[in-house]
Design a protein that fits this description.
2 copies of one chain form a homodimer. Chain A has 199 residues and is an alpha/beta fold. Chain A contains 5 helices and 11 strands, in the order ββααβαββαβαβββββ. Chain A has one domain: Dihydrofolate Reductase, subunit A (3-Layer(aba) Sandwich), CATH 3.40.430.10. The longest helix of chain A has 12 residues. The radius of gyration of chain A is 16 Å and the shape is globular.
Chain lengths: 199, 199
């Protein structure tokens, strides 16, 4: 069975979006900074690439793209307009939501709306992923899966900025959790940290 | 003039102490975990050393010990019982406090109590440090000096644990701040991250 991982870009003070986020300001004030590293290598490699992360980030980004399924929350899904029904990784995606959206999930898309809880979403994602990882890409879901003891690995892209406020990644944890750092990659405009959750 | 730096050990979720900290539980629940890396190398090097950080942490620890002055808050000072009047780094230390303590500062010690604010404490610490760095070792002071635009560098020893709650390092910041990562050291039980504050 594949690993269940969290994969997110965060500020050094632990925010996945800046303050005052909303439909008109999806990443919050200053939150765009969290994704600048993602395109930092684009210039060197020519305009034909949609995005090009810096060379030292390639392995990490490749891993993300090799995931077997993605679990997303409603906020991320709405910001991305459901990725038009195809997640950038090419993997099937599972949207955990109370309100089934009218677009970007269901027949003709790679998206499935799951309205009966995080564990059902995980079961479906695991089945779709087979031996490949399931990646959780929303902060609130990451918190819930951590508390439920379902996360094997945490992958953070730590961006050199203090946002001061915003959507906190590690809020609402109901207990301490011991980790082991299993990889550190110093790249351009980002530091990739990978942790295994000790169980 | 020397740099003004923050030097602290933090959990991956950004706490410098766990929840329920107080006189009887100075590092909070689980907070002792933040300092285990510090003594992780002791066994290899024999019992004559008071502590021995892991080999890959030596340069970072040496830098800390080479600082020219330390600025501490009252919480840290009380927890450490004023280091008996001699800070472990050997540097003069400046305690920012509203209530002047009766021990561990003043004549016959390396400690000076400063009761008229953070900027006066910094001025005295700078004068004592000369060309060497001034290191701020308390979370609440780190926040205040960051907001006052006085921090040049942030040195974090990131420990692989999620404490879930406790004393947050990067709380109460009144604005976003752009950083540049200037060093990453992957050591045993700790990752050392150094950032320059862009001004």
């Amino acid at each position: 069975m594949g690993l269940v991982t969290i994969g997110l870009s965060v500020s050094l003070d632990g925010f996945v979006a800046g303050p005052h986020d909303g439909p008109a300001n999806p990443l919050g004030d200053g939150g765009g900074r969290l994704f600048e590293w993602w395109t930092a290598g684009t210039e060197q490699l020519g305009p034909d690439r949609r995005f090009t992360p810096p060379a030292r980030s390639r392995e990490v980004v490749q891993e993300l793209f090799d995931c077997g399924a993605v679990i997303s929350g409603r906020r991320t899904f709405d910001i991305a307009r459901g990725w038009g029904g195809r997640h950038p990784t090419g993997a099937p995606f599972f949207l955990v939501t109370h309100r089934r959206p009218t677009e970007w999930v269901g027949p003709g898309t790679d998206g499935t709306a799951v309205t009966d809880g995080i564990l059902n979403a995980l079961e479906q994602a695991r089945a779709a992923a087979g031996d490949r990882p399931v990646t959780v890409t929303s902060a609130s879901l990451a918190q819930q899966y951590l508390c439920a003891g379902q996360i094997d690995e945490i992958n953070l892209n730590v961006v050199p900025v203090l946002l001061g406020d915003g959507v906190a990644l590690f809020a609402n944890l109901d207990k301490a959790m011991d980790l082991e750092c299993t990889r550190v990659v110093e790249s351009d405009g980002v530091t990739h940290l990978r942790y295994r959750v000790r169980k």
